[in-house]
């Protein structure tokens, strides 16, 4: 795969197609780079990026060891990983940018990858406040959206020239050098926060279940909301369950807002791509919005004891908590259908298939590890675990294939 990324043809098929609705442009390359910068910075901030295990914390806190010298290899490895990830993102931008701009995008994206790791390290060192990093994570998608609009409108956007690449590397090298020099200022509270994320990530990878990591992220998001004034729910049980989903939206609208921003982006892309690709984008938008909006359904289905306290049957409980996700998914389907030239059959398949796949995914019980394991010549194959993973994605893939065929 690395060889395939690094040895692209001289002229990409999408760039050499004279019938392409949206030809290759530097604007699309800027879109890829901006999204990669936002995701990289957010990921580095969530992971620490500098963390220490319990045994390392013992030596750092109880002995007169040089903390900077001890942590500097970890910081250097993080900066190198950021540069490599940024270079890969810049190489991916070559699929949508002009072939002559590949090297420039790779250089700029690699420098941004170094900065994406260095900025959270400076926050851990208490040299930089968390607010600028948050602003950067929010500004990058706006820049990417502006680049996408320019690409659709055919506005000429200049590629990154030598001056831009040199400036990006100068800024990235400066931030990386400051992070390497100042990493000795990272204290125990910063390690604890990062170690919690690393532990959840390790548990999720070991258990082959992303639920522990998602639970940690969800808990932190609610803790950032602090306290809120209590509100009375409707007296009937069904109305109370629907009202709880609406109350979750009003108290923390960011996930749904981001999902609808993705829907608008999908609608913009669906307007310029062929009908099969537009049908798949329509299905993906419906599935994403329905999955994000069905947080209450997931919590109830994962906790049977909590569901029993509500005093309702399973079917009535699940149908009540599916009203709000279904309504939001219908709105997303209408938005993407109006922006693209997709057949009515594909729109219906996207709506029904996306909602059904999201329902199967959110009603999936906790992962069980006592199922069938098939012993093969190369090791054990967890057949039952694969079956549990496929609950939801199987219907999504089948719906995508059917919608693309009938588009």
Portion of residues in beta strands equals under 5%
Would you identify the regions where 5 or more consecutive residues have pLDDT less than 50?
Answer: 9-14, 16-22
Shape: globular
Strand order of the largest sheet: 1-2
SS class: mainly alpha
> H/E order of the elements?
HHHHHHHHHHHHHHHHHHEEHH
Beta strand count: 2
Largest sheet properties: 2 strands, antiparallel
Radius of gyration: 24 Å
The share of residues in helices is over 70%
Count of discrete alpha- or pi-helical segments spanning 4 or more residues: 20
Question: What is the end-to-end distance?
Answer: 31 Å
In round numbers, the mean pLDDT is: 82
Structure description:
The chain is mainly α and 407 residues long. 73% of the residues lie in helices and 1% in strands. It has 20 helices and two strands. A two-stranded antiparallel ribbon has the order 1-2. Strand 1 and strand 2 form a beta hairpin. Helix 12 runs parallel beside helix 17. The longest helix is centred in the N-terminal third of the chain and has 26 residues. It starts with a helix and ends with a helix. About 3% of the residues have low confidence.
């Amino acid at each position: 795969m690395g060889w395939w990324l690094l040895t692209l043809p001289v002229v990409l098929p999408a760039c050499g197609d004279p019938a392409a609705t949206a030809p290759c442009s530097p604007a699309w390359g800027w879109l890829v780079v901006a999204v990669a910068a936002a995701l990289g910075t957010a990921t580095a901030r969530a992971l620490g990026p500098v963390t220490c295990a319990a045994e390392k914390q013992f030596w750092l806190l109880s002995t007169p060891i040089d903390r900077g010298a001890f942590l500097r290899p970890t910081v250097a490895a993080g900066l190198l990983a950021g540069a490599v990830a940024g270079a890969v993102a810049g190489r991916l931008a070559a699929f949508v940018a002009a072939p002559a701009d590949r090297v420039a995008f790779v250089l700029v994206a690699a420098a941004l990858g170094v900065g994406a790791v260095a900025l959270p390290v400076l926050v851990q060192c208490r040299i930089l406040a968390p607010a600028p990093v948050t602003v950067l994570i929010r500004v990058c998608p706006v820049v990417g959206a502006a680049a996408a609009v320019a690409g659709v409108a055919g506005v000429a956007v200049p590629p990154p020239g030598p001056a831009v690449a040199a400036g990006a590397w100068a800024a990235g090298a400066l931030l990386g050098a400051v992070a390497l020099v100042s990493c000795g200022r990272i204290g125990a509270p910063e390690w604890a926060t990062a170690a919690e994320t690393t532990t959840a990530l390790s548990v999720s990878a070991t258990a082959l279940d992303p639920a522990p990591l998602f639970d940690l992220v969800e808990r932190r998001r609610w803790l950032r909301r602090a306290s809120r004034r209590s509100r009375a729910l409707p007296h009937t049980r069904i109305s109370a369950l629907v009202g709880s989903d609406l109350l979750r939206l009003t108290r923390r609208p960011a996930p749904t807002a981001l999902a609808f921003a993705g829907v608008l982006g999908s609608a913009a892309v669906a307007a310029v791509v062929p009908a099969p690709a537009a049908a798949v984008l329509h299905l993906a938008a419906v599935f994403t919005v329905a999955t994000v909006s069905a947080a209450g359904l997931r919590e109830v289905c994962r906790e049977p004891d909590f569901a029993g306290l509500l005093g309702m049957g399973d079917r009535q409980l699940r149908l009540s908590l599916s009203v709000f996700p279904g309504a939001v998914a219908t709105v997303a389907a209408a938005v993407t259908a109006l922006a693209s030239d997709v057949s009515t059959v594909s729109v219906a398949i996207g709506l029904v298939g996306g909602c059904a796949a999201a329902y199967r995914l959110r009603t999936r019980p906790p992962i069980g590890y006592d199922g069938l394991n098939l012993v093969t010549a190369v090791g054990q194959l967890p057949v039952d675990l694969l079956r549990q993973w496929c609950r939801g994605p199987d219907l999504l893939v089948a719906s995508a294939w059917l919608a693309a065929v009938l588009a």
